[in-house]
Amino acid sequence: MYLTIEETAQYLSVSVTYVEELILQGKIRVIHDSEGAVLIYKDQFKTHFQQLEKYKKLVEELSKEPIPEDRDIKDED
Description:
DNA-binding, HTH_17, alpha+beta
């Protein structure tokens, strides 16, 4: 399935300008149809979302980990 730049921005929850910047940087692959419209293949973002899920799980695990007590704290009283 192919998306337009606007649909891609909505799919990725980013601005249209940001998607255009990523295209210019070569980070998003595009094709042009016979009318010259820019089309973006949707499946190229699968790994992006997989890595995003891994990162969310890592952050969640780290947030559940208790903060160790600092051994260098001295009671001044």
